[in-house]
């Protein structure tokens, strides 16, 4: 195609900005919407997908899902490992972009399964990846972050945090809260790309303006930070964090900050 520099095509289709780039491109958080849709179509309940960069630079896709009872397992003739294997298959066959590792965690009332597979293992198990999937066009709404809302969203999955969450003040408050992660946070001058990011979310009677998760470190046991922008003067920003090698109920650090504390953070 002549007249297009650098092999980049910008299209506007039905209000969605589509960046078509020739050659493989890294899986982005907005791509998670595709995998969530496929998991839900397969009968999964409230699957959670995140995308992050591990300490070695690998792109990691993390899938978590909860099996409420044995009904799904019985109907699908699967155990927890079988449910995880099916999630690996859907990620390999449906998720756009190029990734290095998929980690799947399946919870139930009677157990937990945590499995990790790399690209070579995925190809050996499921065969070649569908042609063109690693270089599929990026799709998002083209939006830019505002103070309260994130930017570049596909459904509820957004690649960019709001200006409030992405600010130097929030990074400083994370450092004050997450003392157990001091070593991992030491070299950061800005927050990394979110591993999970949701727009306005209703939780009970409370509306969150934006809720963002960050993961980093070991692909199988990543350290994590969650930041929720609530927006009230007294409850403006909530930060929770923990080490990946700690039990889910242990060693979680959580603090709530007022608007004044946020504004005064250096």
From TrEMBL:
It comes from the Bacteria. Residues 124-154 are annotated as: Disordered. Keywords: Receptor. This is Tumor necrosis factor receptor superfamily protein 12A. It comes from Spinactinospora alkalitolerans.
